[in-house]
Amino acid sequence: MKAKIMKSLVLVIIVVLLLLPTVAMVESLPRFIDEVGLLTQAEAATLTAKLDEISERHQFDMVVAVVPALDHREARLFAVDFFEENGFGFGDDLDGIILLLAMDERDFGLATLGYGLYAFTDVGQDYLVDQFLPHLRNDAYFEAFMAYADTVEDLLTAAEAGIPYNVEGLLVAVALLLSVFFGEA
Fold this sequence. Notes:
Elements lengths: L1 H24 L6 E3 L6 H18 L2 E7 L7 H11 L10 E7 L4 E7 L2 H4 L2 H16 L3 H20 L6 H16 L3
Parallel strand pairs: 1-2, 2-3
Antiparallel strand pairs: 3-4
Helix pairs in contact: 2-6, 5-6
C-alpha cells in the first residue's frame, strides 16, 4: 500500500515537472498587436521598439492593438478586457494604457488602468486623442500610433513630475511661464 502511494506521488511530481517548462515557454504578446496587417513589418518593428522602450522606462505598459471587430462590445470595454486577458500591466494595479482599433467598425477604444487613471485625466485623454485621431481619419496608421506613443510619454512624464495634464495643471504651467517672462507679482 505504501509503495503504491509512493509511486503515485512520484508520478504526480514527474507530471508537474514536465509541465513547468511548457508554462515557462509561454511568451507574452508584444505591445503592438496587429491582427489585420495594417503596418509593414518595418513599421511594426519600429512601433514595437518604441512602445517597449517607453513602457520599460516608465514601468507602465503602453499597448496598441488592432483587431478585426469588437464582437458587439463597446470599444473601451473591449480594450480593457483585451489588456487584462492578455497579461498586460505593471504591478498589482496593472498600470498601463491601451489604444484598441477595430477595423470593421472603424472605431477605437482608449483605456487606462492602475496609475493610468491618475496620469491620464479626462482632459489629458481628450488631448491624447486629438494628437492621433487626425492621422487615423486619414488612414495614416503608423503616424497615428507613433503620435499616440509620443503623447503618452509626454503625459506620463508630466504626471510623474506631479502635474498630470488637466485644466489646473495648464493654469499652473501658464502662471509659471508668465512669472518667468514678466517677473513675479
